[in-house]
Design a protein that fits this description.
- The chain is mainly α.
- The protein has one domain.
- Helices cover about 65% and strands about 0% of the residues.
- The protein is built from 13 helices and no strands.
- The longest helix has 28 residues.
- It is globular, with a radius of gyration of 22 Å.
- The N and C termini lie far apart (about 70 Å).
């Protein structure tokens, strides 16, 4: 690997190529998986209270099929956490364009477990979905997305390029621990699904594999590349839209337009677009909303556009508020104010 991939950009490029290759392998696996009978709608399933049933799970799971999924998830998570801990706590690393030994180790760990899950799917067709509801996988991805919004606030702002004032200690806390949270989120989502061929699954697998690549490129400049981060964030839009189309009921408008709103309000401001380009995007978005909610949907349904952004932005401030309370009452900060004034200088005679 070291003879082929030497720089962080090469690591990202090969990560994209590898992800596409895995998707082609998943498509090729389709015929093999037809031997497994799939579960039918179960009214008592945990997801049914949301009107959703995840059908890509075996009708006849065995203890071994379940064990392989959970063991794969646990070992994958533990192995990545070890690389994160070693890189952040044991090594004194600077951000460079050259890959370091720990980057090769992290990339190798993820490649190994991606291939392992592929083999596990071919033999057992099982994932964590057999035992946990699908909203748990959705929430882990949402958690990753709103933490990215919070972390990137200092560089691109949160609302049309405008920054929100957070304490610097909040950023330091996120910087120190986000890798553990992100790796858990994508590995949980990765092992939740068997590696089956639907367009929704394929786009989702590409996104989680690229997040794994992103994590593996820790302490490289590519890890901080704003365009690369936006690409990873934006992949959730087609994934969610395709899944929503399959579910029907107009959910596609909530997911597609909701994540598009996130791009327009927050993410695109990392791309240094020219003013006229941004204005053209704004006008195109408004025109799209007018067409949809005057001629396709009903005007009162316009609220579905802000549901996803309301959740993500709301969770940013909830997370900050909880951190602020925890930090204040554990003595990590001495004031709730963002910029606490310095103590007064003693004056002679006081």
């Amino acid at each position: 690997m070291q003879s082929i991939i030497k720089t962080d950009r090469q690591g990202a490029d090969w990560g994209i190529i590898f992800s596409i290759g895995v998707c082609l392998a998943i498509i090729a696996l389709g015929g093999v998986l037809t031997q497994f009978p799939l579960a039918t709608v179960d009214p008592s399933a945990p997801d049914m209270f949301l009107g959703f049933f995840y059908k890509w799970q075996r009708a006849d799971p065995t203890a071994l099929s379940r064990l392989t999924a959970w063991l794969g998830f646990a070992l994958h998570t533990l192995a990545v956490w070890v690389t994160v801990y070693w890189a952040t706590e044991k090594l004194s690393l600077r951000y460079t364009s050259e890959l370091k030994p720990i980057n090769y180790v992290a990339l190798g760990v993820n490649v190994f477990f991606i291939v392992l899950h592929y083999i596990q799917t071919a033999i057992f067709y099982d994932g964590l979905a057999q035992d946990v509801p699908s909203w748990t996988a959705q929430f882990t991805v949402i958690m990753m997305l709103f933490i990215i919004v919070a972390m990137e606030n200092r560089r691109r702002g949160m609302f049309f390029g405008r920054k929100v004032s957070f304490r610097k200690e909040f950023y330091e806390w996120m910087k120190r621990y986000h890798s553990y949270a992100f790796s858990f989120a994508v590995i949980y989502t990765f092992w939740f699904h068997p590696m089956v061929f639907t367009w929704g699954h394929l786009i989702g697998f590409v996104q989680v594999m690229l997040v794994m690549v992103q994590g593996s490129l820790m302490f490289t400049r590519m890890h901080l590349n704003k365009k690369w981060i936006v690409l990873i964030e934006l992949l959730v839009l087609p994934h969610a839209a395709v899944i929503a189309i399959g579910q029907g009921g107009g959910l596609v408008y909530m997911f597609a337009l909701g994540f598009l709103t996130m791009f327009i309000v927050t993410q695109m401001h990392a791309l240094n677009l020219k003013t006229w380009v941004r204005n053209a995007i704004y006008l195109g978005f408004v025109a799209t909303l007018l067409v949809i909610y005057l001629f396709i949907r009903q005007p009162y349904q316009l609220n579905e556009v802000i549901r996803i952004p309301a959740i993500e932005y709301g969770m940013v401030f909830v997370t900050y508020g909880l951190w602020l309370l925890f930090a204040r009452f554990t003595g990590r900060i001495d004031s709730f104010r963002v910029n606490a004034p310095p103590p007064p200088v003693p004056v002679a005679g006081d």
